[in-house]
Design brief:
single chain; 182 residues; disordered N terminus; PME_Inhibitor
């Protein structure tokens, strides 16, 4: 994928919108979750244009915002007395909150590093750091799900929230890997 833009299009022309939407569509097809990818990134097509860096950065920001929101929801669940959680469920939920909070931290570091990345002598090291942190965030999401050994409505609810985060993280990592290789 190149970093060139449609030279015959103005930013507001239908052709540009189609061109940039096509870039998102084609890029998303290369991920494990193309439908979720398109759904979460389509509204940013005009900002992303055909830039691998902007695509990676935007996917990472969407992932960060969703992960942060999920962390807050999990925290609220862990103190919700109406759920009448069993001690094992509370413990698993608290561990999950910690794992997802770690993801938020790793994604925040990744955003800063990716925003500061420029082609040059430091580029490979910076991208390696970003790839490591985003991979760690994905591992944290998986670990969160592993914490739930019992079945029940809490596990189902947590799973629904965390699977979405893990899939978005996977999408962001795919685009980061692509940008690092450009």
């Amino acid at each position: 994928m190149s970093d060139h833009h449609c030279t015959s299009c103005s930013p507001t022309s239908p052709r540009t919108k189609h061109h940039t939407s096509k870039y998102i569509r084609v890029s998303c097809r290369q991920t494990l979750y193309p439908k979720l990818c398109q759904k979460s990134l389509a509204k940013y097509a005009t900002e992303i244009k055909t830039s691998p860096k902007l695509l990676a950065t935007t996917a990472l920001l969407v992932t960060f915002n969703t992960t942060r929101s999920t962390s807050k929801k999990l925290r609220k669940l862990s103190v919700n007395r109406a759920l009448k959680l069993k001690p094992g469920e509370i413990q698993a939920l608290l561990e999950c909150v910690e794992e997802v909070s770690d993801s938020v931290y790793e994604l925040r570091k990744s955003i800063k590093e990716l925003n500061d990345s420029r082609k040059g002598p430091e580029f490979e090291l910076r991208m390696s750091d970003v790839q490591t942190w985003v991979s760690a965030a994905l591992t944290d999401d998986d670990t969160c799900m592993d914490d739930f050994t019992t079945r029940g409505r809490v596990k189902v609810l947590v799973r629904r929230l965390v699977v979405r985060v893990a899939r978005l993280t996977s999408i962001a990592l795919a685009f980061i890997n692509n940008y690092a290789a450009v």
